[in-house]
């Protein structure tokens, strides 16, 4: 294993030295030493930069997998509700790993390379339990090779992302649409083997780029590219830390595992029923873990009395776990909340009783004091994905 990831008690990504160069403030996150913010910008400045220009996020701490072999698709269709046959080569879908009760072990992105090869990304904070879960499930399949790998995983996010990235590849990016990916080179930085996907976790247009790193030379190449993006485009590109990544995804109505998603919550309860395609909603095709419970919830809305929904408010921001009241009755709880730099008010995600309609005024228990909030449709900021 490449030593850089294990050079201290906390792991470091291949871009660590570059983060130091740009004045990063580090925090421990999921076993890694990760940049939360950079000295040149405040959290709010960083957030607004991504909404208007291009932000670079080091997400190399995420766990990257390859599933290969004749039974790779069958395994993925057991542990997720994805219909792998419906995916075209080099297209992706958001999905969820499911336990036997239909609870969410983790959320994930599945990219199909061909019928027997899949690239999958899962969360860094779920690394150990995901590996244990997949290993246990894979025992029932003989013709499959599952392995994980380390490397530079770089998210390039913002409305100017294509304009900037196009300078570093000879391939046109205009016809690379959201949810699609390809393998390409990065001019003089990385000759081949770069996996580029049009996706992200901010709600903005953008890309996630996987650069192979197996030695110091390859790590240096990825750092050179990261720094070139910043130094050669100073008016458009800046490194962005975890603090802004969280507020951006919250505005975009995206889930954070451990907050909106847990092993006790099914995708239907999480308002993610759309990750279960119609082709997998019949008893004969619903062969995934927890299918019985999930199909029951899809067919009988009374079995899911709460849904994931937004809340807006002013004053102190609501935090995870804050109780929600409506007409003096407890009706739900906050899962994530913060000030929205884009909107200038607090935004939060919650699990709320379905009887409380969008537009209703509710009360949020914040530090023992009830404050008004308004039930609001997600996302708070419209997504700007590049679709064909």
TrEMBL record:
Q: What class of enzyme is it?
A: transferase
InterPro entries, from UniProt?
GcvT, GcvT/YgfZ/DmdA, GcvT/YgfZ_C, GcvT_C, GCVT_N, TrmE/GcvT-like
Q: Which reaction does it catalyse?
A: N(6)-[(R)-S(8)-aminomethyldihydrolipoyl]-L-lysyl-[protein] + (6S)-5,6,7,8-tetrahydrofolate = N(6)-[(R)-dihydrolipoyl]-L-lysyl-[protein] + (6R)-5,10-methylene-5,6,7,8-tetrahydrofolate + NH4(+)
Give the molecular function GO annotations.
Answer: aminomethyltransferase activity; transaminase activity
Question: Its principal location?
Answer: mitochondrion
- Establish whether keyword Lipid biosynthesis is in the entry: no
Summary of the function given for this chain in its UniProt record: The glycine cleavage system catalyzes the degradation of glycine.
Q: How does it assemble?
A: The glycine cleavage system is composed of four proteins: P, T, L and H.
What protein does this entry describe?
Aminomethyltransferase
Q: What species does this protein belong to?
A: Candidozyma auris (Yeast)
């Amino acid at each position: 294993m490449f030593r850089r990831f294990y050079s201290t008690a906390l792991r470091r990504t291949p871009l660590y030295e570059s983060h130091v160069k740009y004045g990063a403030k580090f925090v421990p996150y999921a076993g890694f030493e990760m940049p939360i913010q950079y000295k040149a910008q405040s959290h709010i400045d960083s957030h607004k930069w991504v909404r208007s220009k291009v932000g670079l996020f080091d997400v190399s701490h995420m766990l990257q997998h390859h599933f290969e072999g004749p039974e790779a698709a069958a395994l993925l269709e057991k542990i997720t509700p994805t219909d792998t046959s419906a995916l075209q080569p080099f297209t992706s879908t958001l999905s969820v790993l499911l336990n036997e009760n239909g609870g969410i072990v983790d959320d994930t992105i599945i990219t199909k390379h061909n019928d027997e090869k899949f690239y999958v990304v899962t969360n860094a904070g779920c690394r150990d339990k995901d590996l244990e879960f997949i290993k246990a499930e894979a025992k029932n399949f003989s013709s499959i090779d599952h392995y994980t790998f380390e490397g530079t995983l770089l998210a390039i996010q913002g409305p100017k992302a294509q304009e900037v990235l196009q300078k570093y590849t000879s391939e046109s990016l205009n016809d690379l649409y959201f949810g699609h990916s390809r393998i390409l080179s990065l001019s003089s930085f990385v000759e081949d083997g770069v996996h580029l996907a049009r996706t992200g976790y901010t709600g903005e247009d953008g890309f996630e780029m996987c650069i192979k790193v197996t030695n110091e030379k390859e790590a240096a190449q990825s750092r050179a590219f990261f720094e070139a993006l910043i130094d050669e485009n100073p008016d458009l590109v800046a490194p962005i830390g975890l603090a802004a990544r969280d507020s951006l995804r919250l505005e975009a109505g995206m889930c954070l595992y451990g907050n909106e998603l847990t092993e006790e919550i099914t995708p239907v309860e999480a308002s993610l029923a759309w990750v279960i395609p119609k082709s997998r909603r019949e008893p004969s095709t619903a062969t995934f873990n927890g299918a019985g419970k999930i199909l029951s919830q899809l067919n009988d809305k009374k079995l899911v009395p709460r849904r994931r929904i937004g809340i807006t408010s002013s004053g102190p921001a609501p935090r995870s776990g804050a109780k929600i009241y409506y007409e003096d009755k407890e009706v739900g709880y906050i899962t994530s909340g913060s000030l929205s730099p884009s909107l200038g008010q607090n935004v939060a995600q919650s699990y709320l009783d379905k009887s409380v309609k969008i537009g209703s005024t509710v009360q949020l228990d914040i530090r023992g004091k009830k404050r008004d909030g308004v039930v609001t449709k997600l996302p708070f900021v419209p997504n700007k994905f590049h679709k064909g």
